[in-house]
Amino acid sequence: MKTYLSRWVCLGAEENLRRAREEARRAVATGAELVVFPELFLTGYSRPLVAGRARELFAEVSAGSEDTLFVFGSISEGKHNRVTAWIGGREVAAYDKVHLFRPNGEHEIWERGESYTAFDWRGLRVGLMNCNDVRFPEQARALRLEARSDLLVVPAWWPWRRDHIWSTLLQARAVENGVWVLGCCIAGSVAPDEDFAGAGNHVFDPTGEPVRTADDRTYKLDLDDPPTPVVDPVGDAVVIDRVEVVEN
Q1: What angle (nearest 5°) sits at the alpha carbon of residue 239, between those of residues 238 and 242?
Q2: pLDDT-flagged residues of the chain (< 70)
Q3: How far apart (Å, rounded) are the C-alpha atoms in residues 107 and 101?
Q4: How far apart are CA 193 and CA 75, in angstroms?
Q5: Cis before 189? omega within 30
Q6: Domains in the chain and their CATH numbers?
Q7: How far apart are CA 96 and CA 113, in angstroms?
Q8: Residue 140: its pLDDT value, please?
Q9: What's the pLDDT at 212?
Q10: What is the pLDDT of residue 246?
Q11: In the chain, which ranges are E strands?
Q12: Which DSSP string do the residues of 147-209 spell out, in sequence order?
């Protein structure tokens, strides 16, 4: 399966709306079956935009390529930081960010989500996460053990200076769960109050090996013959809900 992870620079909201159409056409032209945009790619933290206008864009873009799955991550809607997935002009899944990033004041902007989200597509089960969620292995574990996800898609707004942490966490989630993990991060932001250099895009196979790319955008996932993890993270999993603390 061919995927396209946008290397997106966030500018003004109106310009972003226009550019998103161009980026979607560019992605589809590569033959991508899955296209991912990063967290808050239309607005960043500081640019106002009515969520309805973003939804109109998502419907229009996805309707233009009915064979492509688009993951738009994310918009500010209903007091949540919301990732949505679209096919053929309709929303097929939505996920509200659970692990809000307190250093950026996200707890003052949004309320945390109350559930994790996975959905079926072309024989795969796709789990949705968002940026800071990757710091919490229990979320990826639940998406793997309980939802039986095959693929985790993680849009993000992560700084370049901590790219090593971002990539390490993505790789760890792939290894411990034996799943494909796609991390799509904002490339940058250009605004008077939000000048930001973003981390890279990273894709890891179920053994934690990086999937190579020639352009930092297009990646090919060998779903027909995936590598086999050394340890079965599902079949060999032991769930214990009791912790014994021995006091001396």
Answers
A1: 125
A2: none
A3: 7
A4: 19
A5: no
A6: 2-220 (3.60.110.10)
A7: 5
A8: 98
A9: 94
A10: 95
A11: 2-5, 9-10, 34-37, 69-77, 80-87, 90-96, 117-121, 124-128, 151-156, 180-185, 188-189, 196-197, 202-204, 218-220
A12: T--SEEEEEE--BGGGHHHHHHHHHHHHHHHT-EEEEEE--EE-STT--EEB---EEE-TTSP
How far is Cα 163 from Cα 155, in angstroms, rounded to an integer? 14
Length of the chain: 248
- DSSP, collapsed to helix, strand or coil, labels residue 84 as strand
Burial class (CB in 10 A: 0-12, 13-18, 19+), 111: middle
Q: Residue holding tokens 């967290």?
A: 39
Phi-psi sector, 208: left (phi>0), alpha (psi -120 to 50), beta:
left
CA 160-23-132 angle, to 5 degrees, is: 35
Q: Yes or no: say if 84 and 72 are a contact pair by the CB < 8 Å rule.
A: yes
* Ramachandran assignment for 105, one of left (phi > 0), alpha (psi -120 to 50 degrees), beta (any other): left
Computed on alpha carbons and rounded to an integer, the radius of gyration of the chain in Å comes to: 18
Residue 239: predicted pLDDT? 86
Cβ neighbours for 146, distance < 8 A, ≥ 6 positions apart: none
- Amino acid 248: pLDDT: 86
Distance, CA of 248 to CA of 239 (rounded, Å) = 27
